[in-house]
Design brief:
The chain is an alpha+beta fold and about 230 residues long. About 55% of the residues lie in helices and about 20% in strands. It has helices at about 10-20, 20-35, 45-50, 60-80, 80-95, 100-115, 120-130, 185-210; strands at about 135-150, 160-175, 175-185. A three-stranded antiparallel sheet has the order 1-2-3.
Length: about 230
């Protein structure tokens, strides 16, 4: 692994926002998370804990949570310590010649490191990592309707038409966007709709069982509490 990260613009912007909070505010965030009686498992639950500490600022709990959880996931997937992560981020800052920023980073570094090491942050990072630990991740689905004309024997007239439908899947695999198109008929669509509804019911049933066992859980892609 390289000794530093090549940060994208949005990552650099988010990190700058976090560092700009300064040591005192970062400590307030740490204390809020440590004192919370909640057992967060999703980013939004972390956000709700952090937001009250940022009421007078432009930086939001969403930004702070996104940065901290992303860092924790990086430590987990790259199998590096928080200290090593911070070293590589510092090398990235230096390599990008962020003038006037290194001093702010140095003051905030140990406070950010302590935030990443908090059990709730690690827990949310692990839950997200497990949620998306698949070879193929579905990005979008569409069912396209296609009308194909049936011509007369001499091709002079359209004597009829066939209505066809195609299930189009877009997914991510090893960082690449892939597509798959499948011809489906009306019966296929009815079966697919029924299977989707069954999948939702089974997911909610599984979550209720976890709740009954006092095990915090969430359905991937859906915030807890949206059950219908």
């Amino acid at each position: 692994m390289p000794s530093h990260f090549n940060l994208k613009e949005h990552q650099r912007r988010d990190l700058t926002s976090l560092v700009s909070l300064g040591p005192e505010r970062l400590d307030e965030i740490r204390v809020a998370i440590e004192r919370s009686q909640e057992a967060p498992l999703t980013p939004s639950e972390i956000e709700s804990i952090i937001d009250p500490t940022l009421k007078d600022l432009e930086v939001t709990g969403e930004i702070v949570t996104r940065v901290l959880v992303s860092m924790a996931i990086t430590c987990r997937t790259a199998r590096i310590s928080t200290a090593e992560l911070m070293d590589r981020l510092q090398a990235s800052i230096t390599s990008e010649s962020a003038k006037g920023y290194e001093a702010e980073w140095s003051k905030a570094r140990k406070h950010i490191e302590s935030l990443i090491d908090l059990a709730p942050i690690r827990r949310v990072a692990k839950a997200l990592d497990l949620s998306y630990d698949h070879e193929n991740l579905l990005s979008s689905t569409r069912i396209l309707c296609d009308v194909r004309p049936v011509f007369s024997d001499d091709d002079a007239e359209i004597s009829g038409a066939v209505v066809m439908q195609t299930l189009s899947l877009e997914y991510r695999r090893n960082g690449r966007t892939m597509t798959l198109s499948l011809a489906v008929d009306s019966e296929d669509i009815e079966k697919l709709s029924a299977e989707c509804e069954r999948a939702r019911k089974k997911a909610f049933s599984a979550r209720r069982k976890m709740d009954a066992c006092h095990i915090t859980s969430f359905i991937v892609g859906e915030e807890k509490g949206n059950e219908k």
